């Protein structure tokens, strides 16, 4: 059974700092990994989808990396801003031959960027 | 571009009352549709998914049901709400394969009293 872990659970940084959020998964046979952002009381916003064949995916100040062999993904946020404050979630899809559909989510990292 | 809508945004219902939450998607055809529940301290749990009109699958047994009367409409229902049904309900859509990106709606906060 796939398990997804995110460390740290919470992070507080001053504005302007570069930071890394970590996501680890137990079953390396994944097809992709998706990073989401969730603001309090809101839905999930998809940030990046990184395919298993990719090692990195970039969008603006965000860069996601994927190392399937070690079961890890990182989300790098450059020059953090107070508007980046949110909970960040990573998720992986189930194996293709299981017939399941549910994404497996990590528990999230709650980020606060201090102005 | 694709957009996903959910309503209502917030709902407070007494135990034993019925429930109907609606989700609609615009800008795409024949999407896979999903209902997730996010409960405090328990993460996101997939409740139902649908690959087409009238096709509903459930990942976990529960007090809820789902229907897909139209290609881009997904409804979550209950005949009698329980206290344990409280939570944040999120609708999502994805491509034909579950391995495509999933895009989430704004959510409905349900409180059962």
Descriptive keywords:
heterodimer; A: 115 residues; mainly beta; 6-stranded mixed sheet; 5-stranded antiparallel sheet; 54% strand; B: 113 residues; 7-stranded mixed sheet; 4-stranded antiparallel sheet; 11 strands; globular
Short description:
Chain A has strands spanning 4-7, 10-14, 19-25, 32-38, 44-51, 56-59, 62-67, 72-77, 86-92, 104-105, 109-114. Chain A is an all-beta fold and 115 residues long.
What is the β-strand count of chain A?
A: 11
Strand residue percentage of chain A: over 45%
Structural class of the secondary elements of chain A? mainly beta
Structural category of chain B is mainly beta
Largest sheet entry of chain A: 6 strands, mixed
Question: Can you walk through the features of this model?
Answer:
The complex is a heterodimer of chains A (115) and B (113). In chain A, 0% of the residues lie in helices and 54% in strands. By secondary structure, chain A is mainly beta. In chain A, a hairpin with a 4-residue loop joins strand 7 and strand 8. Chain A is globular and about 45 Å long. Chain A starts with a strand and ends with a strand. Chain B has 113 residues and is mainly β. In chain B, the strands form 2 sheets. In chain B, strands 2, 4, 5, 6, 9, 10 and 11 form a 7-stranded mixed sheet that branches. In chain B, strands 1-3-8-7 form a 4-stranded antiparallel sheet, with no helix packed on it. The termini of chain B are far apart. The mean pLDDT of chain B is 92. The A-B interface holds A 31-32, 34, 36, 41-46, 49, 89, 91, 93-94, 96, 100-103, 105-108 and B 6, 32, 34, 43-46, 49, 57, 59, 88, 90, 92, 98-99, 101-107, 109.
Please write out the topology.
The complex is a heterodimer of chains A (115) and B (113).
Chain A: E1 4-7, E2 10-14, E3 19-25, E4 32-38, E5 44-51, E6 56-59, E7 62-67, E8 72-77, E9 86-92, E10 104-105, E11 109-114
Chain B: E1 3-7, E2 10-13, E3 19-26, E4 32-39, E5 43-52, E6 55-58, E7 65-70, E8 73-78, E9 87-94, E10 102-104, E11 108-112
Parallel strand pairs in B: 2-11
Antiparallel strand pairs in B: 1-3, 3-8, 4-5, 4-9, 5-6, 7-8, 9-10, 9-11
């Amino acid at each position: 059974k796939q398990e997804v872990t995110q460390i740290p659970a919470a992070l507080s940084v001053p504005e302007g700092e570069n930071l890394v959020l970590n996501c680890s998964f137990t079953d390396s046979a994944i097809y992709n990994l998706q990073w989401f952002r969730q603001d309090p009381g809101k839905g999930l916003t998809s940030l990046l989808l990184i395919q298993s064949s990719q090692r990195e995916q970039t969008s603006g100040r965000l860069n996601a990396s994927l190392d399937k062999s070690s079961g890890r993904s990182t989300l790098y946020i450059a020059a953090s801003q107070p508007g980046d404050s949110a909970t960040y979630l990573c998720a992986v899809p189930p194996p293709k031959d299981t017939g399941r559909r549910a994404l497996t989510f990590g528990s999230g990292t709650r980020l606060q960027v201090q102005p | 571009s694709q957009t996903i809508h959910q309503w209502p945004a917030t709902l407070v219902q007494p135990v034993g009352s019925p429930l109907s939450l609606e989700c609609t998607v615009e800008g795409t055809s024949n999407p896979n549709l999903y209902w997730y529940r996010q409960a405090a301290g328990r993460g996101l749990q997939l409740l139902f998914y649908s690959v087409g009109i009238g096709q509903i699958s459930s990942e976990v047994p529960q007090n809820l049901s789902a229907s897909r009367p139209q290609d881009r409409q997904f409804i979550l229902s209950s005949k009698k709400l329980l206290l344990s049904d409280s939570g944040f309900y999120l609708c999502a859509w994805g491509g034909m394969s579950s391995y495509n990106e999933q895009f989430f709606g704004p959510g409905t906060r349900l409180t059962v009293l």
